Amino acid sequence: MAGKLTAKTVEALTAKDRHTVGRHTDGGGLHLHIRADGRAGWVLRYRLHGRQRDMSLGGYPDVSLKAAREAADAARQSIKAGRDPIRERQREVHQATESASKDRTFKAAMESAIASREGVWKNEKHKWQWRATLEKHALPILGELPVSEVAGDDVMRVLRPIWAKTPETASRLRGRIETVLDHAHALKWRQGENPARWRGHLSELLPNPSKLAPVQRQPALPWPQVPEFLVALRGRRGMAALALEFAILTAARTGEVRGATWGEIDMAARVWTVPAARMKAGEMHRVPLSDAAMDVLNRATVEKPRAKDVIFPNTQNNPLSDMALTMLVRGMATDGLDEDEPPRWRDLAGRVIVPHGFRSAFRDWCGETRPEGREVAERALAHVVRGVEAAYARSDLLERRRPLMQAWGAFCAAPAADIVSLDQARSRQAG
Q1: Is there a contact between 114 and 82 (Cβ–Cβ < 8 Å)?
Q2: 221 vs 162, 257, 305, CA distance in Å?
């Protein structure tokens, strides 16, 4: 069918500031509708079963005259067969939406959320923990559900069985589900409120996890036993033993020690600078190095180390795994003992100690034997200062921490008989 419009005619009719308002027919019911605001679109007017209908075929210039004619021809074929092209298109859109909904499952949203956080994870362990909790608890219930359909009842089915049993894990799981659903909302995969939100929602349905059970602290060696432990540790060979000794003497987290490079060490200034990217709080942390810590570095050094080389590498020259230090401590505590014998190195409850517990031992030692006070001890542990105090605490108190860390290193190398508590010291001074 010969058309009454041409590409040049359409271009002239829709020219900016000179557009011609109205309907401009191309024949067979197809026309170009130009509105007063200059917007133009293709419309096919047809009659089916005694009813007149207008079917939009798209806006111009996104849809050309040729494309509009092809779409109109396809619609006319449906009309000729007695089918309504508008309803057919609605059905196709609905089917496509249903298909997309089936693909946009909670599991797909989880994978997308994890991928979007690449480069944000503090380390691979955090990424693994994030995935592991969701795979273990959430995916069996939510995994194949369209993420747009995940509701409060579904979230409660995940959380309720573990909420009272393991409140800390359950609380973290809830936060991760909330993040996945927020991510899906940002992708426009779902709408409405987040059913995993705590404040004003789940907080009304579940008890506060902090009130269900006391925080389970990591097993820590009582601080008076640390020197004895270090004697045993120095009898062990290998980089894991050196890394653990350095972690104890610097009161640092094991992840910070395992990732430490020679470029972070200023041997002349006796300072280890941990970059913000490797710190839990995301802030750079400087550690004054005691004589004992410097001795560990001297034992760990290799000939002409490069700045990027890790200080305590494994046999493949990669950072040690977290499990390497954990297994070292576990072996020192239980090797050669019968099952009914208590571990050599245990906390006050009889549990086998873990590497992270030495930070607690350091903090207890500070509180019971040192005069520097809370602020210096907390800075030594790189704990975040919050509230009004944070607005004024600009210094990291490096120089005030030097004598503290030097004293800790000396204590760790001292015979147990030489240990004197702060109260004892004050009593002697008073006498």
Answers
A1: no
A2: 30, 19, 34
396 in the same domain as 277: yes
407 Cβ neighbours under 8 A, 6+ residues apart = 370
Tell whether omega for the bond before 61 is within 30 degrees of 0, i.e. cis.
yes
> Residue 124 pLDDT > 90, yes or no?
no
The rounded distance, in Å, linking the Cα atoms of 418 and 421 is 10
**Based on the domain organization, do 176 and 314 belong to the same domain?**
no
Please check whether residue 129 is in contact with residue 137, taking contact to mean a CB–CB distance below 8 angstroms: no
Q: Is 200 left (phi over 0), alpha (psi -120 to 50) or beta?
A: left
Number of domains in the chain: 3
pLDDT at position 430 over 70? no
For 46-57, the pLDDT digits (tens) are: 998 888 989 989
Q: Are residues 254 and 339 in the same domain?
A: yes
CA angle 348–349–355, rounded 5-degree value: 70
Give the structural domain span for 12. Answer: 7-84
The residue that leads in pLDDT, 303 or 175, is 175
Domain assignment of residue 98, yes or no: no
Largest Cα–Cα separation, the chain: 116
Residue 125 sits in the same domain as residue 160: yes
Q: Looking at the structure, tell me whether residues 255 and 191 fall in a common domain.
A: no
Q: Report yes or no on 218 lying in a domain.
A: no
Q: What does the DSSP 8-state code read for residue 105? A: B
| CA 143 – CA 361 distance, rounded (Å) | 42
Which pTM does this prediction carry?
A: 0.57
